[in-house]
Specification:
Layout: H1 10-23, H2 52-60, E1 74-83, H3 93-115, H4 120-132, E2 153-159, E3 165-171, H5 177-187, E4 192-194, H6 195-204, H7 218-231, H8 241-248, E5 251-258, E6 264-272, E7 291-294, E8 298-304, H9 306-311, H10 314-323, H11 329-340, E9 348-353, E10 359-360, E11 367-374, E12 379-382
Parallel strand pairs: 3-4
Antiparallel strand pairs: 1-5, 1-11, 2-3, 2-6, 5-6, 7-8, 8-9, 9-10, 11-12
Length: about 400
């Protein structure tokens, strides 16, 4: 007599189909969860699949899809924050040179590492350390002030070969927070340490420490005073030179690299937001939000409205779109940075580097200070909005 019971193999098979379909995310749907594989399978862009239609649109340059990366054959890239960038009409030649030189120094520091066949992790750490030591940028020496006139800094690093990561948040005495982040990754069983514990951990392992006055700069102090005036209702404080200067370098610094072994890495560091509440932590030390690296997909470092980048899991979502939806790097980054995050209420940008050397720097903010180094040693820096228009 025939049985009315469902065969035992049916439900597992249906479950497998459902899970597979869920993993293959498409634009307009939240990115799938990261794969648990330590060494991911590279996304093959020439293979038909869930992202084939989007790739076709990209190739034809249709609206809503970024058709191509900003550069190719890139081995290292850095950013100095999203914001208004520099205004070409009011920026002096000396100020323009200072920003370009700062980005270039960071790129050359990373290049020295790569030329010695160092790792991509070594390269991004070296590049970010240079930016942390430059008072022009909102990280390390140039960190902005909190609401109580202190400095609390965040940083993270990630290695694409095995998804190893480390981060520090709210540190107040590490000279170079990126070194603290790497120390957490290599010398502890944790991913993120915060506050006094992170400072103590760094000091115990010999990292350089400083007192709070090391981070002080006149420009950041003036920006704090103007921010407080604005918060009290001033109509003019936000338009002052100090406030505008702060806007021009808000956000973070970061780096992404691809070494001769084909390994990707990313690092991000920040002083946070001017006049932020003590204890506030943004996206920079959050793996998958401000920083992400995964061999076969990309290395990415973000800058902008940190809370929005956390809510949108920005950098890991770009990686998921490359891996699971088979989108090209530029299309995946555009989808997240330009189409999804502004809908959550914030702007910003990202530098993203693929395993084949494709590089893209989409941003919804008016500008983003950044630069990159190509395989042949060419250095490119972009500091004016017309050099890197917003991808709106």
């Amino acid at each position: 007599m025939p049985s009315n019971r469902t065969p035992a193999w049916i439900l597992p098979a249906l479950l497998a189909v459902t899970v597979t379909a869920a993993l293959v995310a498409v634009p307009g749907v939240d990115g799938a969860a990261p794969s648990s594989s330590a060494v991911p399978v590279a996304a093959e862009q020439d293979q038909a699949g869930p992202g084939a239609a989007a790739q076709s649109e990209a190739a034809q340059g249709k609206p809503g899809v970024k058709p191509r990366p900003d550069a190719r054959d890139v081995v290292l890239a850095v950013h100095g924050g999203a914001g208004a960038a520099l205004d070409r009409e009011t920026t002096t030649p000396a100020r323009e040179k200072a920003y370009r030189d700062g980005l270039a120094r960071a790129l050359r520091a990373g290049q020295k590492v790569l030329d010695r066949r160092g790792t991509s992790l070594d390269a991004v750490a070296a590049a970010v350390k240079v930016l942390e030591d430059d008072p022009l940028f909102n990280a390390g020496k140039g960190a902005v002030f909190t609401a109580d006139a202190a400095h609390e800094l965040d940083a993270s690093v990630m290695r694409g070969s095995d998804l190893a990561a480390g981060a520090v948040a709210g540190v107040r005495s590490l000279r170079n927070p990126v070194e603290g982040a790497r120390l957490v990754m290599e010398k502890s069983r944790h991913v993120l340490l915060a506050g006094e514990g992170a400072d103590d951990f760094g000091q115990q392992h010999g990292l350089a420490t400083v007192t709070q006055d090391y981070y002080w700069t006149q420009a950041r102090w003036d920006a704090l005073l103007r921010a407080k005036e604005t918060a009290r209702g001033s109509k003019t404080a936000a338009k002052t030179a100090e406030a505008l200067a702060d806007e021009q370098s808000k956000g973070t610094v970061g780096a992404v690299a691809l070494d001769g072994r084909g390994d990707l890495a990313a690092a991000t560091s920040t002083g946070g937001l001017t006049n932020k509440l003590p204890g506030r932590i943004g996206d920079s030390p959050v793996i998958g939000a401000g920083t992400y690296a995964k061999n076969g997909t990309l290395a990415a470092s973000a800058t902008g409205a940190g809370e929005v980048f956390i809510r949108g899991a920005a950098t890991s979502t770009i990686s998921n779109l490359v891996e699971f939806a088979r989108l090209p790097l530029a299309s995946a980054a555009y989808e997240v940075i330009v189409k999804r995050l502004p809908a959550l209420g914030g702007d910003g940008g990202v530098i993203a580097l693929g395993p084949n050397g494709d590089f893209d720097a989409p941003h919804s903010s008016p500008g983003m200070l950044h630069g990159y180094l190509t395989e042949d040693g060419t250095v490119v820096t972009k500091v004016f909005p017309d050099e890197s228009p917003a991808n709106t």
